[in-house]
Amino acid sequence: MLEVNILNEKWYDVVDNPEDFVLNVINAALKELEIDHYKPSVSVALADDNLLHQLNLKFREMDKPTNVLSFPCEELSNGCDLGDIAISIDTIERESREYSIPILAHITHMLVHGLLHLLGHDHQEENEEIIMKSLENKILAALGYDV
């Protein structure tokens, strides 16, 4: 089951139907990764810098907002609860302007990034980063985004 919680109304200024957008991205990513048949549960919080700052401080001891955070729960298996993703519209908008990235492409990238973290991928080591970026690029390309 996929669940989307819209915690800040600014999401409606950026995406016509934020819930459908997120569901489409996550479902497409699961399909591209060939794991959709597991039907995992994922919860996504469409939030703002205030919440991401609080979560980043509490769970990562980083006193600043960030674009996306992932909170893994269970390993991939049939009907598992993969975990939660929180994403900040404020940071996404700021980064989109700063790096000249179309905002929908950036939102999509951060959702895919968050999902890959739930699946155990990381980018702390160079070899891990190469694998994770390769998977991100594969999924983004399948969704029609230039990478």
Task: Describe, in plain words, how this protein is organized in 3D.
It is a single chain. This protein is 50% helix and 17% strand. The protein contains six helices and four strands. The protein has helices at residues 11-14, 18-32, 49-60, 89-98, 103-118, 126-142; strands at residues 2-6, 41-47, 68-72, 81-88. It has a four-stranded mixed beta sheet with strand order 1-2-4-3, with helices on both faces. A hairpin with an 8-residue loop joins strand 3 (68-72) and strand 4 (81-88). The model has no long low-confidence stretch (mean pLDDT 96).
The helix count comes to: 6
The best one-word shape is: globular
Query: In angstroms, what is the radius of gyration?
Result: 14 Å
H/E element order: EHHEHEEHHH
Strand element count: 4
User: What is the topology, as strand order, of the major beta sheet?
Assistant: 1-2-4-3
The averaged pLDDT comes out at 96
Q: Structural class given helices, strands, pairing?
A: alpha/beta
Low-confidence stretches: none
Strand content: 15-25%
Spatial gap, N to C terminus? 29 Å
Question: Percent of residues in helical segments?
Answer: 40-55%
Main beta-sheet strand count, sense and barrel state: 4 strands, mixed
